[in-house]
Amino acid sequence: MASVRVRFAPSPTGPLHIGGVRTALYNYLFARKHSGTFILRIEDTDQGRYVPGAEQYIIESLRWLGLLPDEGPEFDGQYGPYRQSERKSIYREYVDRLVAEGHAYYAFDTPDELETMRQNDPTFKYDAVTRKKLKNSLTLSTSESDHLLNTSDHVAIRLRIPENEVISFNDEIRGHVSFNSSELDDKVILKGDGMPTYHLANIVDDHLMEITHVIRGEEWLSSTAHHVLMYRFLGWTPPSFSHLPLILKPTGQGKLSKRDGARFGFPVFPLSWDGDHEEDNFTGFREDGFLPEALLNFLSLLGWSPGNDQEMFTMDELVEAFSLEKIVKSGARFDIDKALWFNQQYIIHADNLRLAYLIQDKAIESGYHVSVEYLAEVCGLMKERVHKTHEIISSARFFFEAPHVFDVESMKKKYRQEHRNHLEAIGNILIKNDSGDPETLIKDHIAAQNLKMGEIMPLLRLSVCGTMQGPDLMKSVRLIGNAESGKRILDSLPAYDNLS
Fold it and tell me: Does the predicted model carry a pTM greater than 0.90?
């Protein structure tokens, strides 16, 4: 196999959808598996849809995920520029060649004229049949065409699709694919502003950048026949094609869209995005408390299977196991519960100090100004009990402040009046012995008073934490401190008194 070169080629028209992240991941895995090159190319030929900040968002997303390109904007490389808008002068040569050899032609129809045709015929398409009746260099005389080329503001160049021809190619995922040319339209390949469309720019760039494998979403499958034709017209060998299955809504019905996040209550973008309008603001997986390696592990299995029951993969293991042959054809349902399970597993195995740094801003935002070392201790106690990193703060407020509200129902079930003196005694013991081992201090009192652990321990947990939920009580008391824990126990006594 020739040296593998793959590209991830998003358009900067907004935030990077999670489906795009999976495409980037599969390209990255394939490149690493074959010791190849992973390229980022920004396909910004549609300037009307260009969104400021989108390119930087894409790059930041790839950095957060660890899918660093070998070539691309901000990554250098020998095949640049890597923004199509900066390659505008390159495309004209190939367009002129297609026109000169009869594979493309000038079209002078105005947008209004084409819209009228679509209104009159909803099935209208500019193709081998209709082009014979429209305003283009195939139907007009040379002098008429030359005049319009010099005077018209509406000059596009369209690909000339041959009539009654079967166009076939092999897809690494879908096998043999064929289209009849009668199904295809004469796509615009160069717009009036001199900017190429995706169809021209992507094949020229793939050829000049020596791309060996095109791995992209299923939505581009229907356009591949046009691309195969252009490769043939230009005398080039096309790359290998692989069209990935769709990521489906949680219901399994239809493609997962950017609006589905708000509808179903989970992110669909790697990072948060602030749009021009409130409805265009989206929370990202990063800000929602996901670890990048968990998200990648989850996404890797949305459309690909290792062929066994293994679910947890390091990046090296993914690279080793990945192959295009194991990508499925059918769409993969987005299961947020499974994504949360993956995230929980990675949080459990994450370094406590790393988690502390990740939630430090959230702690400060909540008014908790504690050391990162203290946060790391909290993370160590809480990480098996959460699915998202920020839940460590929201689920463990008792590590940062005394409870203001108590689980009254549990208090009623566990508390009896004779327990009050024991709670008060234990509280005072802890305050007086701030440096002692709390487990020894508490168990000594319980033994001396002939009490049962099951009687007192739940009440102590309610006093110190306000809830029956939480990590090991003695570990929690050690972290909070004997004196503070003892004070909380004494301060909770009025709450117990009010139960009767």
Answer: yes
Number of domains in the chain: 2
Residue 161: DSSP 8-state: P
Residue 242 belongs to some domain of the structure: no
Residue 118 lies in a domain: yes
Q: What is the dihedral of CA 427, 430, 433, 436, to 10 degrees?
A: 160
The CATH number that applies at residue 129 is 3.90.800.10
Count each helix (H run) and each strand (E run) in the chain, helices first: 20, 11
pLDDT digits (tens, 9 = 90+) for 108-160: 999 999 999 999 999 999 999 999 999 999 999 999 999 999 999 889 999 99
Catalogue the active-site residues.
258
Which structural domain, as residue segments, surrounds residue 396? 352-497
Using the 3D structure, point to which of 198, 233, 249 is the last residue of a domain.
198
Q: What does the pLDDT look like over 322-358, one tens digit per residue?
A: 999 999 999 999 999 999 999 999 999 999 999 999 9
**Does a structural domain hold residue 163?**
yes
d(CA 198, CA 411): 66
**Beta strand 175-180 pairing with 166-171:** antiparallel
How far from 100 is each of 76, 106, 264, CA to CA, in Å? 35, 11, 53
Two tokens, residue 52: 């400021």
